[in-house]
Write a structure and sequence with these properties.
There is one protein chain. The protein is an all-alpha fold and 79 residues long. 63% of the residues lie in helices and 0% in strands. It contains 5 helices and no strands.
Length: 79
């Protein structure tokens, strides 16, 4: 998955690696992409996100909004 960004791998279709890389960035998974990675490869992430959106319009934003909304209230563990 990291090779998709680090090695500039460019597949013709929507691959598992592209989907996982893009969603890991959108969900801000620090265990996959550090802040430094996200800063260094920002333009690459944007390009991959655009490719992902071309295959599955709206899904990336919907998943990100849903995940971040639940995290904002304690990950669903609010009182």
């Amino acid at each position: 998955m990291r090779a998709t960004v680090f090695d500039g791998a460019h597949a013709e279709g929507l691959t598992d690696e592209l989907a996982m890389a893009v969603l890991a960035v959108e969900l801000e998974l620090a265990s996959v992409w550090s802040k430094e990675d996200r800063r260094t490869y920002k333009s690459d992430f944007k390009a991959h996100a655009a490719r992902f959106d071309a295959f599955v319009p709206g899904l990336r934003k919907a998943l990100r909004d849903s995940y971040l909304a639940s995290r904002a209230v304690g990950g669903g563990w609010s009182a």
